[in-house]
């Protein structure tokens, strides 16, 4: 009996001691510990043993700095695992760590055959166990025999969490040679309405039901990837795709059809720089903006002209952005060349119908130009050598796998060509330009990356003249992209842009001078995107821009000069805006894209402003007061709402109708009394006497895809009304004019047209045909005769060309040889002719017709090219491409302008042309 009592005592004592040893309270301190280190620290101060998979913590960068005293083990682990996907289960002195899922201590009632409970949305409300997968997979997966070990767990399962109908699955899809983010890849759940498309950087956000799902990618260029996923909560899933390499009869490059078919935005054109190498252009230059002129609705005033006229708008009504910074003059040498290196330019998105709410400040269009990002894994380059210019682009990793640098340069050797000519005047001329660009990309981590661009272009010319003209662009951008969570992403962007020109006049007398002009702007933008659901995708943001305009100075360069120095007062202005937009998917057929933008502009001092008497014409004689404003004092404030609305409806799967309405404001104006834009034109800010311009446009279009989308048809019409459009009095003096408002007129404009485009993207014969019928009219009316033009009636603008037809065709003869052609026809632009003369006071004067009553002859041109690719060996020093082209092969003497000269009492008309003979060229392109 004593032995039994002793044994019972020892057992009871052992239980007491054991229960004290494995107390569930611990004291522990973590210093810069990751998850695995924290677990090891807990094991050192307790009798708990942890069980987990070592692979889970291989890339763990967690840093824990906390101290716990007499805290329950469960509370400590809840804190440690709070921002991770890990769960845990405690049994005696054992801790089992799980990834995503929860270990349940008892089975639910339905485990042995009772149907699973579901909520009103059909979602399972009871836990899902591995044993139930087989039955679920048969209804949800195309591959029911796939091993359960291939399952990917998404999100962290949380006890007592309210079940949702869908969860957010997000991530990035990478692939290709650079393992960079892939745009326009479709991510979807097969046989369901759940799908999404990756953005420019390869990111996607997809709503998926809870539980077991199958997710797959879809792309023409990359192999399909299918994954089984178990969704517990919101989470991330990344994909790595491989090139879809097939043995084809020919190599085809296809644009993104799905974006064109699904978007609600009207009047948008995307041009990829790589896809235009076969288009024959002047002097063999690959020029992304010149190709834009072959698209409906986009024109210039004449051959070799700077500036673009989009849907009846003036040259200054187009916003050119290079990596988010304003590019004020995108042309070299009066418009013959574009100031963009074709080998560093990725693409341009042209918005000429419905302009997204994030853009503002111009009435007609936005040219959103993107430069290429570098290769983060290896060094590579590309370039071209032509008869007038050469280009080079190199890309190199800075931190392998994370950052890269792209450097590009282009220069002309036209000075050398001019000096080799026999004509003495041309031999002493100058004509040269160059442009440089640097772009740096750095991926900090999964949620942060930065990119920065530096750009500079410079032109210098003096052709048979005693004046040396110089002008330059400079811009810099810095962009920080941040992912807050699966639904929220944003970008903070800071930019600076400068445009300036200079005229150095060297006179044989004493009146030599230096004349200059400069505009500078600094801008900050915050752009946010919020994926609320599969039906609503919100975008919103803020922006502010500070302008500083030096209207001009004139400094005599000869100490004996009789010229008086002039320095026109600097202008300043602050333009700010806020916007919000929603891409609202009402149904699979009906999509709305609407936004609201509010912009405001403040003209700022230091400034002196004239106040003119009301109800009288603005002139020196009607000034009643001169008012002085202090530094940064608000002179005048303008602003207003700019609603944007676009809708798309699918009549059938490949036939849609779209409509849009836009209102826009413009607070900055380009002053030019030339027919076409000149590098010496000046920008003017709105102020007390110059009102901002505004416009409203409606568009309606029909879009049809044929042959599985390989052929696209579109027919789009538009109507636009404008207010406060700037024009000028006859003989206006614009340069160095301190009271420029006395030379300006502001009137109304209207433009309308219909655009047709057929595009074939694949096959031996590919290309596009475009036709536009349009009108652009302006009315300058006033109660005062001196401020009227054409008796106050609507008349054709300088760039009104009713008929415009373009055909760009490429025929692939073999895998290495192809023939290309470019045909253009346009109605001649308006012009004012002299119609008579009269004598007055012993002087003879010319009588002119109403402004722009006549037209110069119609314009047409045919260019042809032969493209020869190098052999297709994979391993070679460089891959090459030859382009042999003839610009204006028919030798058409197209008139650029018509002017009149009085000789021997007679008025004679003369016609000038830019290229009146065929211009052959040969260009060698290489890539390594």
TrEMBL record:
Q: Name one GO cellular component term.
A: cell outer membrane
What membrane topology is annotated for this entry? Multi-pass membrane protein
- Looking at the record, the residues that make up the TonB-dependent receptor plug domain are 266-362
User: A GO term (biological process) for this protein?
Assistant: siderophore transmembrane transport
Q: Which residue windows are transmembrane per the record?
A: none
Report a single Gene Ontology molecular function.
siderophore uptake transmembrane transporter activity
Gene3D superfamilies xrefs: Carboxypeptidase-like, regulatory domain, TonB-dependent receptor, beta-barrel domain, TonB-dependent receptor, plug domain
> Is-annotated flag, keyword Signal?
yes
Any one Pfam family match given in the protein's UniProt record, by short name: TonB_dep_Rec_b-barrel
Q: Any coiled-coil ranges, and where?
A: none
TonB-dependent receptor-like beta-barrel domain: from which residue to which, for each copy? Answer: 421-889
InterPro entries from the UniProt entry: Beta-barrel_TonB (IPR000531), Beta-barrel_TonB_sf (IPR036942), CarboxyPept-like_regulatory (IPR008969), Plug_dom (IPR012910), Plug_dom_sf (IPR037066), TonB-dep_rcpt-like (IPR039426)
Print the keywords alphabetically: Cell outer membrane, Membrane, Receptor, Signal, TonB box, Transmembrane, Transmembrane beta strand, Transport
Cellular localisation: Cell outer membrane
Q: Which family would the database say this protein is a member of?
A: Belongs to the TonB-dependent receptor family.
**Which PANTHER family is this protein grouped with?**
HEMOGLOBIN AND HEMOGLOBIN-HAPTOGLOBIN-BINDING PROTEIN 1-RELATED (PTHR30069:SF29), TONB-DEPENDENT OUTER MEMBRANE RECEPTOR (PTHR30069)
**Protein name as catalogued:** TonB-dependent receptor
